[in-house]
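User: Structure please.
Assistant: Input sequence and predicted structure:
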Amino acid sequence: MTWLKDAFERIADDMPERDLAARAMAVHQRRRRNRTAFAAAAAVVVVTALAATLGVRLLPETPREPAAPVKPPEQATIEVGVVPSTAAAPLFVAAAKGYFEQEGLTVTPRIVISGAHAVPRVAAGAVDLTQTDHLAALRVIRAGQPFKIVSGLYEPGPGTTALVVKAKSTIRSVADLEGKKIGVSYLRSMEELALAGLLKKAGLSLDDVKLIESPLPDMAMQMAKGRFDAALTVEPFVSMGAGQKQWRVLADLLTGDFADLPGQAWMASEKWIAANPATLAAFQRALVKAQRLITSDPGELEAILPYYIRMTREESAAIKRGAYTTAIDLPGLRRLDELGRRYGFMKGRFDVKEAVMTSR
């Protein structure tokens, strides 16, 4: 996988100039400031006109107990690893709406293949937090790395994680995958674990297929070139590829034992968490606002996806959706850990509470 490692190292090196996500974020922030200034001016005109017309004197509100002061972030600028997918949307919405700015934070997104791939950068301090799936986090922490899951992010819904094949492929069932090549975003992923479950039902195992790593945005192109026969992918790529007739869905990955498992989360090093409690709290408050906004107004998700993924607004509106949450599902995490052990992804019993940041 040298070519993949080299490609992403070049992306990381050139990121200040080439990071589409960071540029899109800056555009959004400029537009937000312009809209805010206009709205504020309009509000002054309306209030002044009403007061003059009605002769109403605005009275002060009833005094309230002062809120506890919020500590400013210890680190005003942070770099965050994100996987280009639907799951990452709250971070970009929070930036576009100025929620990070309100918390005194400047957040720069850095594209990563996965949380597992981002571990060396997080450990070195090049990235402060990273998006990850819960399985990758468990594997890293079980291996002795000093990291913690700091909050939930996204729970996948039906059809949001799928096994796909070429639109005109002769593969018609999971059993037909024997001896085939399958694209995965990274090895030992949540998607690969679910694939192991599907293969077992078809009388196969992971030993009967060959897995090839490919970044999520490149999978359709790599499949078209014949690099692999099937792929494990997530939204918005599932719907985009199907809509463009590049592939068709062979199976929903997250069904049966794999339904309703914890999806994506945020992970950081124990050292960074201990040194930056106010920074982390500010980051989480901004994300909560963004998650609530996306949940209440689906149009926000449709609008933000094309700013960090190459897709149209129409394609964005057609995707299947999961749920955004900051909660950490401990029972689900225990079930995921058990499935990981059942299929040989991890060994030995483990208290999943040790993987989660304790309340400060």
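The chain has 14 helices and eleven strands.
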